Amino acid sequence: MEGIELGYWGIRGLAQPIRLMLEYLEIDYEESIYKCGGAPSYDRSEWTEVKDHLGLVFPALPYLIHHDNRITQSNAIARYIACENELVGSDSEAKTLCDMIAEDLSHLRDEWVRLCYNPGFEDRVAEWLELVPVKFAAYEKLANGAEGAWVTGESLTWVDFVLYELVDQIMTMDPTAFLSLPHLCAYHRNFQELPTIKAYLGSDRFRQHPINNPMAKWGGSIPRTQK
């Protein structure tokens, strides 16, 4: 795959699993990064002024442009890359499991994002984190802790990138959140040890922060120690 443009805010957000896939596959891509302004207006004109002029059927961020293909919606983009690079599952059973996992992770991520942007974040975060072992119980079983084992079996698939990123964002908030899920912790470590992923995480291309846009109550800024 050549000539890829990935458009998104200058945050990890929804685009990070896509970046991880491209980096894992060692596919060159160009990023178009749009800036969201600060308080009080959180100006998004960098995006709104161009979104209807990019040939996108459903103008939204993230988007991926690859030759004549212009794709929006993060899961659709990830599936497209997966289909082009044999990361969709080895058989119909694995492909169906991928789809189920993708739907479930969408719900979990929506919960996570609502928490991060909620004005009542400080009052809700402790309770939400306490429920992480319940919310991710199915993934603890799927991960099973075996080295080289992924959520649909022995083969890495596109949903592993989505799951890893969600787990990693939560761990960035609270490194202890998954301690009661040892298989998922091992899965997280194994993912980070994939050679091309390890190289990316150690490069200046990787941005640990910000995770969210500036209006978020958590993850919307770069910690002073990392500036």
> Helix proportion of residues, in percent?
40-55%
What structural category do the secondary elements indicate?
alpha+beta
Could you tell me the radius of gyration in angstroms?
A: 17 Å
Mean pLDDT metric: 93
How many strands?
4
Q: How would you characterize the largest beta sheet?
A: 4 strands, mixed
Please trace the helix and strand order, writing H or E for each element: EHEHEEHHHHHHHH
Strand percent estimate: 5-15%
**Ends distance:** 34 Å
The number of helical segments is: 10
Strand order of the largest sheet: 2-1-3-4
Oligomeric composition of the shown chains: single chain
Weakly predicted, low-confidence segments: none
Shape: globular
Notes on the structure:
The structure is a single chain. This protein has 227 residues and is an alpha+beta fold. Helices cover 46% and strands 9% of the residues. It has helices at 16-24, 45-48, 74-84, 92-117, 121-130, 132-135, 137-143, 158-173, 182-192, 195-201; strands spanning 4-9, 29-34, 63-66, 69-72. It has a 4-stranded mixed β-sheet, with helices on one face. The longest helix is centred in the middle third of the chain and has 26 residues, at 92-117.
Would you spell out the secondary-structure blueprint of this structure?
Elements: E1 4-9, H1 16-24, E2 29-34, H2 45-48, E3 63-66, E4 69-72, H3 74-84, H4 92-117, H5 121-130, H6 132-135, H7 137-143, H8 158-173, H9 182-192, H10 195-201
Parallel strand pairs: 1-2
Antiparallel strand pairs: 1-3, 3-4
